[in-house]
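Researcher: First entry.
Model:
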Amino acid sequence: MQHKAMERRTSHHMSTIMSESRGELIAWVNELLQLNYTKVEQLGTGAAYVQIMDSIFQDLPMSRVKFATKHEYEYLGNYKILQNCFTAHKLDKAIPTDRLMKCKMQDNLEFLQWIKKFWDRNYSGEPYDPVGRRGASNEPPAAANRSSTASARRATGNGANRSMSGREHLSAVANRSLRGPSPDHTVILNLQKELQEERNTVVALEKERDFYFGKLRDVEVLIQTAMESNAEIGDLQLVKDIQNVLYSTEDGFEPPADEYPDETF
């Protein structure tokens, strides 16, 4: 019974953490801001983070935000604007600027997950014009081939629309482009290529998710088996440290507090 309860709790915790993959989050950023990012690491410039917050508050100085940046020292201005936004709106969240600026995947993924959750809770639902807000001359290189006239409102729908998957996003883009009377053949080929790349990315992410979940599950089973043969193992500091890693939570990813109130490892 205890084993089954732990399996349910572990599965619930892992599914909560992995509710939105990198591909889904990048698709959401691209749709909301009309960009064409392909990696989470590209958000390390800070520009996209600033504009996501601007879509909520619409009071940030977007003309000062630099999207077309190449060097870390150029990112500082973007993060200063982001920090001023957090201060002005009294957001109790530390911005790990030094780590984000290094454009590492894990640091930017964790921060993007937090921002997405904050956006879901606070976005008003009003239409947002990302290109107009940042200015047509302030486009990042990755956005050069993306249509600036597509509506960002599609990314701000309620419920399932806010979590549009990478496959759904690219299919929708392809369908919208093909509705025109004389679609450019090159555009079609590029969209088909982009769609296939996104499918490959989703498959790879699903394999990666299953791989790491399996590793965590193996560790849990090993510990539980050892504790069943010798209860004193549970008192070892190393075992306690491993348990803390397995069941640690962070803001925005906690399981419901009263779901399994009386259970222990």
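Researcher: Second entry.
Model:
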Amino acid sequence: MAPPPPASMPLGQRLMQLAQTLQFGWFVGHLTLLFCSLRYGLSYMTFNYYSRWAKFSYRTAFLAAAATYGIVVYKAYRARARSATRQQGGALALAGDENVQYLAMALVWLFSRQIPLALLPFAVYSVFHVATYTRANLIPTIQPPQASATSGTSPGGRPATKSSPLADTIGRFVKQYYDASMTLVAGLEILLWFRILSSAILFTRGSWILLAIYTAFFRARYSQSSFVQGAIGQGTANVDALVANQSTPPAARQAWNTFKGLVKQAADATDLNRYTGGQQPGTKKAQ
């Protein structure tokens, strides 16, 4: 993330310089996603999720999500082009980039039927992206750090500065709740898979195609995210404990073991490590 404009510039020029960066467009996209998610949430809670404003908010949220992840993917591509380096692995390496995966899913949700649960993982990510950008760029631009009156220089030899109390509060919030929120996202993405599966079982129009696309996305998430792996491991352990109960019918126990075996076989067959020489494609943290 680029540093904020120099404090020596007037406030108007600092804000103008900040607004002319792609990173600011990325921030506005996440902010728009948050506002639209909240607006759609209000419509959902009042059972007006098919009203004109609800549809507009839902589609705009995913349009903003596609724009934000598109900016990150574009910046990564431009950085590689400038450094004259080529990413190994070709299409598989590109598919292994988390930002490409979320860009693809944002476009899928943008043009698919409304599934409110699909908005929540993107909204959780946006909370932390907006908070991080506000702390690192927006606050220092509006209120540049002041020289500390208690110490002369920092360990790097630069004059010591005093950060904003608001920035410190945001930093503590991100540090304290990040892991719990990523675990929440993992749980939401698992619930979303079952939500799509239920639609497929009922033969809702287009649901089987959507299930195939989301399953591929979720398989990639499982291979890259320790939070998803932990959530699935915890859920599997809970079901194992339930099935191991003496009151569980043998048929249910056998069905669960068969299901686990099929899932393991499918996971092994779709492991990208088998097709990339045993190395996981280069991945990037979703932004």
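Model: Note on the second entry: The longest strand covers residues 146-147.
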